[in-house]
Design a protein that fits this description.
Elements: H1 3-34, H2 37-63, H3 78-106, H4 114-142, H5 145-174, H6 179-206, H7 213-226, E1 232-241, E2 244-253, H8 259-276, E3 280-288
Amino acid sequence: MDAANSARAHRLAFWGIPLSIGVLGLKLMAWWVTGSVALLSDGLESIVNVVAAIIAFVVISYAAKPADASHPFGHHKAEYFSAVIEGVLIVVAALMIVYEAAPAIFDPKLPEAPVLGLAINAAAGIVNAIWAGVLLRAGKALRSPALEADGHHIFSDVVTSGGVLIGLALAFLTGYAVLDPLLAVLVACNILIQGSKVIARSVDGLMDRAVPAEDEEAIKAAIASHAGGSLGVHDLKTRQAGAAMFVDFHLVVPAGMTVGEAHLICDRIEDAIRAVQPTAKIAIHVEPESEEAHGVRVKLTGGRKA
């Protein structure tokens, strides 16, 4: 991630803190005026949002640090730890909701001042919906696992709030007070599913998962069309580490080619890859044509496969 994108991610992470605190305040106010267990469960999830926003801010700041002697490949993977922690916090929030809601199933009560409470909660949901959209777009554009995880979590909070609003309206209209705690339990189930997805995506990043198929195809196309003078490319490997993308492959050249000529080809290929993947960190191993090809191969434009 370049300096400009890093600064943007840092700003977004910072503003997530006061926004999450404001939304938490609105949801707790909605619970206070109604006494609704479902609204309390929605508020408890927002406590997790506040903690997650603080963690994301700290981790994104750390991940932006340049490479050093102890971390020669940079600190990009730190963002995955933020996402894993957020996933765990989501699960904790779900368990807290069940703890609060389960007793109320056996002693249900209709909420008080439902119109005011639902209006306050709806306002919090609108703020969250706008912010979730901002984070998801920015997380994808900046390749920030922390921002993207935060966006997915807040979007799940929006879905939760929508379900709470509908459920409480039904409870009030029908007089079935038990719908309030039952809805809180359903909210907890939804949160558990979202938390497991956040953890799974983050673990993939920590395990050096290959870049998405469309990104790898773009890399192959860049190599194929700018490797003129070489004989082939093989053993292509990619991995994503936060905002950074690592690309590694072997470039086969004629045995009699000079180092300078091979270097020019490498420079041309590197420029082409970075044109389609600006964050790519590229390592090219140049070898003579006598070496046996292995791994993922790239068919060169107008050339032959190594």
